[in-house]
Amino acid sequence: MASSKPYLQDNHGHISIATEFEERVWMHHQHSDDGSGQYAAAYHLIGKSNLGRLVSALNKLHQFIPALNLRYHFDEDNGLVKSAKDTADQTINIEAVESIEEAIAHLQHKQSNPIQLDSQPPIQFIIYICNEKEVVLGIVSHQILSGQLSWKEVFDVLSALYNHGLATELSEKQNKTNKAGYTPLAKLSDLSESAISWIKRNDSKISWIQTGLSEGSSSSLNAAVSRKFATSIEINALEKYADKNSNRTNLLSVVAALFSRYMLEVNKLESLNVFVPIDAERDMFEMNGALIETDLTRLTLTPSSSKIEDEIDKIKEHIGSAQSQSSEYYDYSDAATLVTWLVDPSKHLSFENIASRKLSIAPLEPRFELALGVGVDEQGALLLELFVGPSVSAHIGAYILETFVKYIGGEVIEQANVLELEAPTPQETEFEESANSLRVEDIILEEFRDALASESMTKHDDFFDLGGHSLIATRVIGRLLTKHGIEVQINDLFSYSTAEQLAQHAIVQQTESTDSTDELANTTSVEQLILAEFREALSVETMSLDDDFFDCGGHSLIATRVIGRLLKNHGIEIQINDLFSYSTARSLSEHANCHDKAVEPTCASIEAAELSKAPLSLTQTSLWYAKLQFDEMGLKSLFNLPFALRFLDEVDEIIFGQAFRDVLLRHSGLRSQFYKGEESPFQQVVPVGDVDNYKWYWTSEESEFPTRDGLLKSEASHVFDLENELPLRIRFVRDEESGQQFLSLLFHHIVLDEWSVNLMMDELTHAYKQRMSGAAPKWKELPNPFNEFARKQRESGTNQVNLNYWKNILEGVPWAKPIFPEDHYLAGMPDETGVASGGWVEIKLEQDVIEGLYALAKSVNASLFNVVYASITSALHFLGAPKNLVVGTPASGRLDAEYFDTIGYFTSIVAHLVKFGEVGTVAELIEQVKNSINESMPHTDIPLGLVQQELDLEVPEGGGFMFEVFIQLHAKNKFNGALELPNGDRLDFQQVDPDKSESGLGLQFEVLEEVVNDEQVLRVMMSYMSKNYSPAQVKLLSDTTSALFAEFAKSAKGDQLLEDIKGRVIDSETV
Question: Which GO terms fall under molecular function for this chain's record (predicted)?
Fold first, then answer.
């Protein structure tokens, strides 16, 4: 019967009941968990594409077509419901690849990752830049949208948005009328298993030798993947059965009759089940974008001596009968073939000055083992495309299509001669089944343990007694089928709920030669390697496979380091978003890709690199010219990095100096000098033998300052002579009043970044312990020198793809202004004390607020920094910051894993755009922030100064950066810790807050996530430029930000509306 459930009426987030078809697709999606209900399509855009316009058009699409932004949720009272969000929170990914083939490979990999239908849109767009010139538009779509979305509608609107920046509202929503059709959700049984065994592939590896092809071609030909074979013939070849002006149904009936008879005759079959589409004219509603695979009708054809014309009439009559029936869903799983109409939505892509061509992609998860597509090209030729599944021999598809074309032409095709193999004896079968049962039992138990987080579970324990329920059962069944080829019925799991019992009722599907036990062993190996890197990065030796990375102190900077070390040391590739979503070693291992390890550089090559002068890296160059600009303004110490430590225990200053010298000799970047050069600046490493000729270290006995304040103030204002001294100064002072030792560590920013600070402190702690035992420190490996990184980066040139990434994001964004207008009621008198004079305040956070922010981060799969960042920007927006707020933040800039252990200045300043108009809730804002930061990471080797040069910006006098607001994370920095002695004793130290009296940034928020006395501490420091903000405005900023932290902390799931929060926090009279 037709569904009586209402369809979504508008795009305002109203909830409606899903259709029966959507329920079936959703249930299949929950069971499979493998992306089998998703499709991939790719379109080659030939011509000069404007990426900014394309991204903008894609971002606006959902405003005109709400189905693009649906979400599906299971409601206890109403079952499956759906709603269209007001805003789109998906990001249009831009990927740089070497070729169109690599783009298709990446797209199909993305297709295989299941879309989370409750939180992600069911259609996703990816723009590929191939070899820095070709553009491909990739689309991953979900079957659940079938019938709700027309590609003509989507591409017409997209073209209008691209060409004109706007599109008219659709006067009439095109909805597909569901016929009495069958739509397969899963793969049907194989013809090769029941009727045509000779087409089935086997494990024999056949070498393919052909002139012009490399030896490596054989591996791709032997791979168990689906394939597509295509040809075209003159439509006159069918003139005996249909004229060239025949409609689609007539042409489809002719080809279906011919192909069915060909298959019956060649294979001597008694019957053949054939599916054809009920309505070949409704092709634009096919989500796969390749061939009609929904609303099908089945015929069972048998060999016949009647005329082929009678068979054609029979098929046409059957289709006509099916069109008049009422909608009815039914299931079918027997072997069958499909003869259908081909789909090409590219004809509706009409971008200005761009031609569009659909790229051929073989389906990743074909429903039919054999499917024949029919179409007519622009020249009127008949198109034939044969799709074969991965179970079919790679060499058969071309043969079938070639002989079928001959059959159309009237040639008689002989039956294939196939030698049948002798069946195994009952004894052999019994032995094999016994061995398989033991293996299946172990695999089921492993999946039970993983799903229930119960490592001690045995094969005799009951799944439901240990916390299992229907949702977990659904996931286990899906994983058993997709990962191990073990089919279990849901009713069997309820009836036989131990691993031992269930194994007796499981069906093991035939797979490739990969043994599941080997797969488990490999997964375990990856798990252990990930866990080892987690433990080392977090210094938590007791961490287990199921402990959460972020619960144990992880954050985005440490995550980046772990990802780099896994790739460099073990060849294990992890995506940053996967680490946020799957944050235990066990769960993350399932999303890892393994590669060959990189070749380690030799000590000789490193030493040689240190001896020659090198150019400045891109980020160093940007800082160098900014330094020259600020020098002219009298701000010669603006790029100093002053740090100070208070030692709570007595430290041996002589040994400490030796230990720091060990680190200095190990990292040549810390002993580099910088020169103006005739054409461009360069750096030169001071040789190891010359280091002691420079004064860079002072004990407290050498200090002329009686108090720590005098020393710290003097050091912070020191002006480095980068050509003639080392870019660091390490000085002890003993405070006369307290007797405590204080340490001043001063660096020029050109040689040190945030990441390097923790590297330095780790190595300093190690060296101090070794020196206290009377020995020089022993290191695991030698880091690559920074100047070699700078040389390699300059030789490779500016990464134009990464530069374009930032240009596309920031194009059209104006230079930022102070948060408050000049006539704001709290504005003070203009500051005359100095161009960069400023101050700082600490924004206090109560412990319950800190705990609430951590809980919120965990519930929305984000980092604490993402949450704090979203809180701060919300406060600023509520106080008057624009809807599109540009926020500066430092990015690690370490894209090359070879330099993850190198101390240097890799950090680049980047600008992200917070779009408040596209989010409604706390969770949506956090998700946007997370995606903006994470997805930009591969592009952070481009300094913002270089981006600003490329943008058409009105730069104010004095220059600077295009943002007013800067948010920075100091996560678990090692300036709060301890030196360890050989006997295990600790010498504790704490960081002393600097006194900031100068600022080159309008508003800077520093988020300090620290561990002090083994307790988690979160602090937020806000520094400001006095000429932009009065003391009263600073207090308003501080109080509002504090209030937003408290509000976000109370939003446990992030479902609070931002507008509601604004109403509670902001008094309209004060803004």
Answer: catalytic activity; phosphopantetheine binding
